[in-house]
Specification:
single chain; 186 residues; alpha+beta; 2 domains; 6 helices; 29% helix
Length: 186
């Protein structure tokens, strides 16, 4: 019995050492793009060149078997929480002035990664919470820079019908974990 244990240990040591050496955390870059169809890039058969995205995808893991929600807010919520959006109260894009966002108690993938020692950041459109407690720096991201709501609101400011008393002028925001998010420029 002792001999068997010694042989097993001796043959296992190289595997244990190899596992320890290669147990590095992978870098994770997750790109979420709204309104991008399956065949919109060359990688997926489009005739539109997309060399940088193609090269980026060739170097990493591609997740190609997926389902999405019918709108951006529920999709983003599902990705962040791993839950059906209806369970997080984010099953639709909120109308201007409607309360919105994931509940502050939701445990997000950003919090999971942060708790596992990763540095986390979000850049661009958030659209799953526009109040303190529901912004990226409150939901597990070490830092963020972007817009709180839909990107399409920014285009409305150039139309004659735009009224900032009804919909505030969209701002770019920034925040760090543990701090308050603020507009980059007033």
């Amino acid at each position: 019995l002792v001999l068997n244990a010694a042989i097993m240990l001796a043959t296992s040591l190289p595997l244990i050492a190899q596992t320890t050496r290669t147990a590095r955390k992978p870098n994770i870059v997750y790109i979420l793009v709204d309104n991008w169809g399956w065949g919109d890039i060359a990688l997926q058969g489009s005739t539109t060149p997309s060399p940088r995205i193609d090269a980026f995808a060739a170097q990493g893991m591609r997740l190609t078997n997926f389902n999405v929600q019918n709108q951006c807010t529920p999709t983003r919520s599902a990705i962040m929480t791993g839950r059906y959006p209806v369970r997080s109260g984010t099953q639709k894009v909120p109308a201007p002035g409607e309360p919105q966002g994931m509940a502050p108690w939701e445990y997000t993938i950003a919090e999971l990664l942060s708790d596992s020692g990763y540095a986390t950041a979000a850049y661009g459109k958030w659209h799953i919470g526009d109040k303190d407690g529901r912004l990226p720096n409150d939901q597990g991201f070490d830092e963020w820079y972007g817009i709180k709501e839909s990107a399409m609101l920014a285009s409305f400011t150039t139309t004659p019908q735009f009224d900032p008393e009804i919909i505030p002028i969209p701002r770019i925001w920034a925040g760090k974990k543990g701090g308050k998010s603020t507009p980059v420029k007033e």
